[in-house]
Amino acid sequence: MAVQKLPIAKAINESLRAALDADPKVLVMGEDVGKLGGVFRVTDGLQKDFGEDRVIDTPLAESGIVGTAIGLALRGYRPVVEIQFDGFVFPAYDQIVTQLAKMHARALGKIKVPVVIRIPYGGGIGAVEHHSESPESLFAHVAGLKVVTPSNSSDAYWMLQQAIQSDDPVIYFEPKRRYWDKGEVNTDAIPDPLHKARAVREGTDATLVAYGPMVKTCLEAAAAAEEEGKSLEVVDLRSISPLDFDTVQASVEKTGRLIVVHEAPTFFGSGAEIAARVTERCFYHLEAPVLRVGGFHAPYPPARVEEDYLPGLDRVLDAVDRSLAY
Questions:
Q1: Class of the 198-325 domain?
Q2: Which of 26, 27, 69, 292 sits most deeply, having the most CB atoms within 10 A of its CB?
């Protein structure tokens, strides 16, 4: 494929295709992933090309899907599980946190459980409840799980490749509102390490840290702020657990200010951990308190008002103004 411009959804499809082609032990399984190609068509064409034994349509039973994947992993397979929507993962939460996350430690390192769980997450698609949540911090809190999320097509391709190759379980969150955003994918490139954050825009006045769907929002905010003479650095975390605090620290030591942005509620969210850790590590470099921009501590609202719930350009820029006012 070399270099192509692909939507994020297609980049994930190509990554799955490459993994299936390279390793006969890789399996794709989930609700409607086969004949339908997934509700977002992310797995379109894979069952046709690799067969029903490797791209498996499962019953509507998330606990059973993940439990089966654990068993397959213990027998040497590398299952890639799709959870159809973010809110559907909770019937499988017990399997994930009490079995999948614990097996390696429980066996004193003798057992590997290379399971990837793909979860389309976040809002912005006008869906009902259980279709727009951002539960990443619930999984990041659990030792034994890696939690990652791409924000662009290149990372969507390469981070999934790296997740599938990992011997540890990986929760791979896909920003569904960005599925059709296009970007270049170079399949001959040498990718960044899976858990390495990346500064995607240089700046000097304040740092915006985001991941997944909010990276694009922060880049738009930085472009808008530039017109007012403000220079904002944007850091894409890429990985939520483990989290690359060194890259965040280096940026904050340069700018003196930090605003963390994510769709999930700010209350007990991943931004709280980042704020606490940066305060510990960068206290004498900070010119203002670390600020957070996120969703509200409330159930996800009806589609008619979701734009009021989701962090947008204005809320990010308001936080920047508050930070610069100190």
A1: alpha beta
A2: 69
Tokens, residue 150: 């791409």
Domain boundaries, the chain: 4-185, 198-325
Predicted pLDDT at 1:
62
Size (the chain), residues? 326
Determine the average pLDDT of the residues in 263-273.
97
pLDDT tens digits along 213-247: 999 999 999 999 999 999 999 999 999 999 999 99
Asked whether 145 and 1 are in contact (CB, 8 A), the reply is no
Residue 131 among the catalytic residues:
yes
List the structure tokens of 28: 């794709």
Nearest alpha-carbon partner for 135 in 42, 268, 30: 268
Rounded to 5°, angle at Cα 173 from 145 and 91: 70
Spacing of C-alpha 140 from chain mean position: 11
Q: Tokens 């470099």, residue?
A: 285
Structure token digits, residue 188: 């001959």
Distances, alpha carbon 294 to alpha carbons 8, 115, 222, 316, in Å:
23, 30, 17, 9
Measure Cα distances from 319 to 142, 221, 295, 308 in Å: 30, 11, 14, 16
Compute the CA torsion angle 72, 88, 47, 158 (nearest 10 deg): -80
Cβ atoms of 212 and 124 closer than 8 Å: no
Given the residues 130, 131, 141, 285, the one annotated as active site: 131
CA angle 214, 239, 216 (to 5 degrees): 20
pLDDT recorded at residue 129: 86
User: Residue range 49-65: average pLDDT?
Assistant: 97
| Cα–Cα nearest to 205, from 170, 255, 245, 250 | 255
- CATH topology for the 4-185 domain: Rossmann fold (3.40.50)
Percent of the chain with pLDDT over 70: 100
User: Do 261 and 293 touch, CB atoms closer than 8 A?
Assistant: yes
